[in-house]
Specification:
The protein is of the alpha/beta class. It has 19 helices and 20 strands. It binds adenosine-5'-triphosphate (ATP) and magnesium ion. Magnesium ion is lined by residues 47-48, 90, 174, 409-410.
Length: 507
């Protein structure tokens, strides 16, 4: 460890360009060891890009970086590691090798090094060192387990353990809490505080959840359109409303004004729906036309499982899915689409988008028949036009409709997933945590589009563990606990507190 000696890191006048995108424009960023920094900004503002300069991935930056006053060149990930900089990326799944064990993932560097030198590998050592790295963070995971069997939260911890093992001076966490439950987030915060205060690591924390920044960070840097627009210590006077306005560069009302949409007859009805391995059981609910129905529940309550069972991605063993009184229980997602259901899934990179395809193709893939001409050729111009409209409505930050989705920022990829289903023509839309990783401004844009669907008489299911969102957009909500529905509430007569009470098993 580096003792309690203070280290400083200064980035000066950093700029970077990608084809058609100026992603960073003369950015300064400063940090010291032992402190926790918030880096925030709208989707596509340049946060991840700036941090990838530090981690050596964006090696073509211009400008200067100093560590302890000495100028350094960070032109490769290896150079960054040697300088004591570690990063846990936004895309957890991309950073790990799912088929390998926890130990192998944590010890990748050591293994690669030894294999490179054709040295003997002492597996007992690998496992016990990996276990130590986890214990140091106060985490208990079986190091022999393949990473593919871990929860998202556990994967996050594996990445953190692997970064912290390197005894780094500076650690970047890019949206670490997006997939985590409240308890998991609290655990992560404990670990982060310990690394900062006891091991003197300087930490950068990126998140779209403002309250947690106030909880854990001391300093905040706000980015907008490739630049730093504010850089200050967090004081009790600073409000989240101010932060959002700096971030968006305009006035912003945090309280969402919900439109009044007339509610019609029952559209979708679930009758005692049970998933074949009992992931959800006996779920009965109704969604009327024009109605937004919230499914509130903590991480792990069964919301995703419910959405997938309705959509035929999981098999049901009992009960039925009925549309306008007719049993349509789908046996597969393609049947569900044919029966006019749409699902916006939770894990965008795994199932939501084809990241190597351009944006226009992703956005139009769920409704291809709309873009065919008389002889059934896809008319690219129609696809591009539809994509252009969504880019505008959702404020997707991209140089053009032709951009490869992998090149978009995390939050903008999420907007593509949502947008893709908005152009499809369904009767009932199921949204599973659609705003994860999306900035507060874009969140309201997504709410508006969902309300437009409701206004067209569609039925909406909105599953979320962010109860403030359910309160903002739903008309009615069902609360899930342990795979079943425990309570139904009218949102105008309920509160976040009540949702929390029932979702933690209260009755
Ligand atoms: N490899 C790349 N090729 C082309 N464009 C890129 C690449 N990486 C980033 N960009 C662009 O640079 C801009 C900044 O992206 P960045 O990922 O830094 O945003 P962000 O602030 O992290 O947003 P989010 O909150 O959505 O994660 C975006 O317009 C993005 O599309
Ligand atoms: Mg990002």
């Amino acid at each position: 460890m580096d003792g309690q000696k203070k280290s400083t890191l200064n980035m000066r006048d950093i700029s970077i360009e990608f084809p058609g995108v100026k992603a960073l424009s003369n950015v300064d960023f400063n940090m010291e060891s032992g402190r926790i920094y918030a880096l925030i900004g709208a989707n596509g503002a340049g946060k991840s890009t700036l941090m990838k300069v530090l981690s050596g991935v964006n090696s073509h930056y211009t400008g200067q970086v100093f560590i302890d006053g000495q100028e350094v060149e960070i032109r490769s990930p290896k150079a960054a590691k040697e300088l004591g900089i570690e990063i846990v990326y936004q895309e957890v799944d991309v950073a790990l090798t799912p088929s390998l064990s926890v130990a192998e993932n944590i010890m990748t560097n050591v293994l690669v090094n030894k294999m490179g030198k054709k040295q003997f590998i002492n597996w007992n050592y690998i496992r016990s060192a990996a276990k130590d790295a986890l214990t140091r963070l106060g985490v208990d995971i079986d190091v022999r387990k393949p990473v593919s069997e871990l929860t998202l939260a556990e994967k996050q911890m594996v990445l953190l353990a692997s970064a912290a093992r390197e005894r780094c001076k500076f650690l970047v966490l890019d949206e670490p809490t997006a997939p985590l439950s409240n308890t998991e987030t609290e655990n992560l915060f404990k670990v982060v505080r310990r690394l900062a205060k006891e091991e003197n690591v300087g930490i950068v924390f990126i998140s779209h959840r403002l309250p947690e920044l106030f909880e854990i960070c001391e300093h905040i840097t706000i980015m907008r359109d490739a630049r730093v627009v504010q850089d200050m210590d967090i004081t009790p006077e600073l409000t989240s409303k101010q932060i959002v306005e700096y971030m968006l560069g305009r006035k912003f009302d945090e309280v969402y004004q919900k439109k009044n949409v007339p509610i019609g007859d029952a559209l979708l009805e679930l009758d005692a729906l049970t998933e074949e391995s009992d992931k959800i059981h006996g779920v009965s609910l109704t969604v009327r036309s024009g109605e937004i129905v919230g499914i509130a529940g903590l991480v792990g309550a069964g919301k995703t499982e419910l959405c997938k069972t309705i959509f035929g991605a999981y098999r049901s063993s009992k009960g039925s899915v009925n549309l306008r009184g007719k049993n349509i229980t789908p046996k597969s997602p393609s049947q569900a689409v044919a029966r006019r259901l749409a699902l916006v899934p939770e894990e965008r990179r795994k199932e939501g988008v084809i990241v190597v395809d351009p944006l226009y193709a992703n956005i139009t893939i769920s409704a291809l028949q709309k873009f065919l001409n008389k002889i059934h050729f896809i008319v690219k111009r129609r696809q591009v036009d539809a994509a252009g409209k969504l880019i505008k409505d959702l404020g997707i930050k991209t140089p053009s409709e032709n951009q490869i989705v992998a090149n978009l920022s995390g939050g903008n990829q999420q907007k593509v997933v949502v947008g893709k289903w908005l152009v499809s023509d369904a009767d009932v839309y199921i949204f599973d945590e659609p705003t994860k990783g999306v900035d507060v401004g874009a969140k309201q844009d997504i709410f508006k589009l969902i309300e437009d669907l409701a206004a067209q008489g569609k039925g909406i299911i909105y599953a979320s563990c962010e109860f403030s969102e359910i309160m903002a957009i739903a008309d009615r909500a069902y609360i899930m606990f342990d795979g079943g529905i425990v309570k139904e509430v009218k949102v105008s007569e309920s509160s976040e507190k009540e949702l929390l009470y029932y979702s933690t098993g209260g009755n």
